[in-house]
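User: Can you recover a sequence for this backbone? Please restate the input before giving your answer.

Assistant: Of course. Working from this structure:
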């Protein structure tokens, strides 16, 4: 029903394909492709559609609104809720993260391939306000990494501080967008964007089912772990790659040096016996 409903609601809202594309943060050609059934929208685009039309995701993909009377009035009175199993009349259980809809904005190149937007340190504060705004993302530097899996949406963040040594301050972390927070495995390195802490790079421990929290741990043991409420979190990006001009410092601790000396002594002794 996606293509049928997209055409129906665009006409109900008196929007051209170009105007609809602007509101969804996509190219006009994609709107045409979706309406003609030549392409299928990403989940993030479907969420944007449902929010714009004032209906649920379930209704968007299963209900033919072109056959309903007063569809616009009925939709305006319905409270938008996250997708859940069951029919329209079945109550939805609140998610551990407070049931908030997370809207992911993104940009594409001339061939409709998703870009990797880079958020440098100096843009970190502005990202908290513009992360869901396609116009803000449009001005960020962009690049592509062909070695990354084609499935998923990626974004790059320049980190600061020494809490995740040996990954140094100034390293660019490339993360894949995490839509289902409940699936995060304990100890996963992630970029966490929140109202409370801004943009941080930590290992995430999932405590959603216990108390709707995440525990954030640093690799540098001088930093203590702490909890953050899931309702304060805006985005989570699972770290998949990093770019750095600083190479990790070799482990030259006394124990390591002593081990190397012992190995050399043993090799010399074997050579003498030969």
């Amino acid at each position: 029903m996606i293509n049928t409903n997209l055409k129906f609601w665009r006409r109900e809202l008196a929007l051209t394909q170009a105007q609809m594309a602007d509101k969804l943060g996509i190219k006009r050609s994609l709107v045409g492709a979706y309406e003609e059934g030549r392409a299928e929208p990403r989940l993030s685009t479907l969420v944007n559609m449902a929010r714009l039309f004032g209906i649920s995701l379930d209704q968007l993909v299963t209900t033919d609104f072109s056959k309903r009377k007063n569809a616009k009035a009925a939709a305006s009175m319905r409270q938008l809720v996250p997708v859940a199993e069951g029919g329209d009349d079945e109550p939805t259980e609140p998610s551990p993260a407070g049931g908030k809809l997370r809207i992911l904005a993104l940009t594409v190149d001339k061939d409709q391939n998703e870009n990797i937007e880079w958020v440098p340190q100096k843009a970190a504060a502005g990202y908290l306000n513009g992360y869901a705004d396609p116009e803000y993302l449009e001005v960020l530097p962009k690049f592509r990494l062909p070695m990354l899996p084609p499935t998923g949406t990626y974004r790059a963040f320049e980190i600061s501080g020494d809490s995740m040594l040996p990954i140094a301050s100034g390293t660019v972390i490339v993360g894949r967008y995490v839509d289902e927070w409940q699936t995060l495995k304990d100890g996963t390195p992630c970029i966490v964007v929140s109202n409370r802490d801004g943009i941080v790079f930590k290992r995430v421990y999932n405590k959603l089912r216990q108390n709707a929290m995440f525990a954030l741990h640093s690799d540098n043991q001088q930093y203590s772990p702490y909890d953050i409420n899931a309702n304060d979190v805006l985005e989570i990006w699972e770290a998949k790659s990093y770019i750095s001009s600083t190479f990790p410092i070799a482990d030259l601790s006394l124990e390591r040096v002593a081990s190397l000396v012992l190995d050399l002594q043993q090799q010399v002794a074997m050579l003498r016996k030969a």
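That completes the design. Residues 15 and 28 are 12 Å apart (CA to CA).
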